[in-house]
Amino acid sequence: MSGMVLLVCCTFAVLLPVQAYENLALNQTTWQSSTLWSGAGADRALDGRYADLDVGAGQCAASVYGQTTAEWRVDLGGVRSIHHVGIQYATDNRVWDENNVYTGCVLGFSVYISNTTNKEDVVLCFRDTNYTRATIPNPVNITCPYHGRYVIYYNNRTHPPYPEGYSDYAYTDLCEVEVYGCPSPGYYRKNCSLKCPQNCQDGYCVEGTCFSCDPGYRGPRCDQECPGGFYGKKCVKNCSLTCVVTGSCDKVTGQCLGGCQAGWTGDMCEKECLDGQYGYNCVEKCNLTCRDSDKCDKITGHCVGGCRAGWRGDMCEKECDAGLFGKNCVENCSMTCGDPGVCDKETGHCNGSCLAGWEGDMCQNECPIGSYGVNCLGVTESLVVVMSAVSRAGQGSDVRKVNVMESYKHSNTSIHLLF
Question: What is the CA angle 122-10-38, rounded to 5?
């Protein structure tokens, strides 16, 4: 098995003093990018045994020789509050110093914390950039105060030349990995007895310091509400300037407190009033007496384009004054109406009655010759004679009737009967 050890190189394991934190990784599900032999599966790094640090002894996880990348991970079974990770390297049961072949194999390794199996979507907990074969410790303890479901070990030899002392290939030879932390998110300290501050996002914290805050709060312990005019995660969003009280909104949602300024609606007062609406929260309706009933100023309600005939005022809320009518009430009712100066405020019509001597909807026409009186309903005597002549001409041709009437048009004193 010693020959196999020389081919495999680098193995990691964890040997930690007894602490109140729980080993969250023990006997959990594991995976590695390749497996050297059946007795070196990924799960061997979580079996709680680290007495024999020879990768051929069946107590260590080992990857295939000659790979440029090596990856190993453990699924903690859910998001956990992690405090630190411990790794015990394989030594082939020899002295751990710069002459041990495994020291060069472990240089440059990284540890990630993730909520997925993709190490690109993770938090980098540790990356070795300074150790040498003479200085890398065994075991190594890495403070890793994060929350996550997966702990991922990774190493690579993809970009030569490598620093002095690095092996030519990458390995996952891990004899034991221990992930210590609190089994339940939202707690901290060694005995996991202290609860994270109330407004930590998802309840996660490290030694009482929140990773991030719930929307509406800020500060290391998320105990400070957003200042006036701000809301949301990290308190970086501005309250709407169209809130009824400018910049006053719910610290969490951004919803305007007290409603919206005139002309605006929506939870965050981000929407202008629809056509036909205006005022605070857009609850008012444009006046139907506006020239265009669905078009008024969304803030004031003032009619856009003026008023319908018969109305006046900014909101077209006033009828025309007595004696006036039409668009903007600038027309004068006729003084020849039956009631002089009194007319329909929209059309100017004289309400069906004219002074004597006048006729028409607006009493604008003088009575024709032969008519007189109110609405020109009276008929002069000469016209009666003419009509009698026309009646007598009924036995004659239509031409004769026309000639009678034409003669009357040119003289109201004499009639020239042409038949």
Answer: 90
Whether 86 and 16 have beta carbons less than 8 Å apart is answered as yes
Instruction: Give the model's pLDDT for residue 125.
Output: 92
What does the alpha-carbon distance between residue 109 and residue 89 come to, in Å, rounded to a whole number? Answer: 12
**Which residues are bridge partners to 290 per DSSP?**
307
Contact 318, 300 (CB under 8 A): no
Tokens matching residue 119: 């190490």
Q: Are 361 and 375 in contact (CB under 8 A)?
A: no
Closest CA to 59 of 173, 151, 175, 169: 175
Q: Is the model's pTM score more than 0.90?
A: no
Close Cβ partners of 12 (under 8 Å, ≥ 6 residues apart): 45, 87, 88, 89, 90, 106, 109, 153, 172, 173, 174, 175, 176, 177
- Domains plus CATH for the chain? 2-183 (2.60.120.260), 194-225 (no CATH), 320-379 (no CATH), 380-410 (no CATH)
Q: Pairing between strand 324-325 and 331-332?
A: antiparallel
Among all chains, which residue has been given the structure tokens 């910049």? Answer: 247
Q: Nearest 5 degrees, angle CA 259-CA 264-CA 266?
A: 60
For the chain, what is the radius of gyration of the CA atoms? 49
CA 274, 277, 279, 284 dihedral sign is negative
**Segment 70-115, tens digit of pLDDT:** 999 999 998 888 889 999 989 899 999 999 999 999 999 999 999 8
DSSP β-bridge partners for residue 140:
87
131 phi and psi angles, rounded to 5 deg: -65, 150
Question: Shortest CA distance to 26 belongs to which of 50, 9, 55, 47?
Answer: 47
